[in-house]
Specification:
elongated; alpha/beta; Cell_Envelope_Assoc; transmembrane helix
Length: about 190
């Protein structure tokens, strides 16, 4: 009896390890295709906001990449997407709007979606702000997050390219482990 328990434990360990590796490789593929200005609309996905409206490093990296992209492609409009978490003193979208405007992006190029509480809602609620026929979008997020964001966007009927923001080294391991679980959940539940 004890041998069977050991064999089952080894088998489960191997399966779990295989899934962990597979999800890690899948996450790496999220950083393609890179955006080239083809899509008229870009969605910046929200992330943690610290007290007094200070964007977390992950969010700041997303915003800096957005500024570079919007400067390079002046015809692109941007949706800043993110509601207010229970531990945040303002919405992620309002912080993103302020950040972009203070750095020279005209407010008339920025649409605000400030009700979402998840990646799926970021995309779903942002879709309501887009012209009805819009199919192509650009998503801006940190590298670890893009695979799931693209999967969810495609489930909503979008064709997606991406702008990749670096993941802060200080939280990279934690976020990559957490993202594997979130990606697996998304594949199982569909959202």
């Amino acid at each position: 009896m004890k041998k069977w328990i050991i064999r089952i434990a080894i088998l489960l360990f191997c399966i779990s390890g295989g899934i962990y590796i597979w999800l890690g490789e899948d996450i790496k593929h999220g950083a393609q295709p890179l955006a080239n200005g083809t899509a008229t609309y870009m969605i910046v996905l929200g992330a943690k906001v610290k007290p007094n409206g200070v964007p977390s490093l992950a969010l700041r990296n997303r915003l800096e990449e957005s500024i570079d992209y919007l400067t390079k492609y002046p015809h692109v409009k941007v949706i800043v997407s993110g509601g207010q978490g229970s531990d945040e003193d303002r919405t992620e979208a309002s912080v993103m709007l302020d950040y972009l405007v203070q750095r020279g992006i005209p407010a008339e190029r920025i649409l605000v979606e400030d009700q979402s509480t998840s990646t799926y809602e970021n995309l779903l609620f942002s879709k309501e702000l887009l012209p009805e026929a819009t199919k192509q979008i650009t998503i801006v997020s940190n590298d670890f997050h893009l695979r799931r964001a693209k999967y969810l966007a495609k489930s909503l009927g979008f064709e997606v390219d991406v702008v990749v923001a670096k993941t802060p080294k200080s939280v990279e391991t934690k976020l990559r482990i957490r993202e594997r679980a979130a990606l697996l959940k998304t594949y199982i539940l569909g959202y």
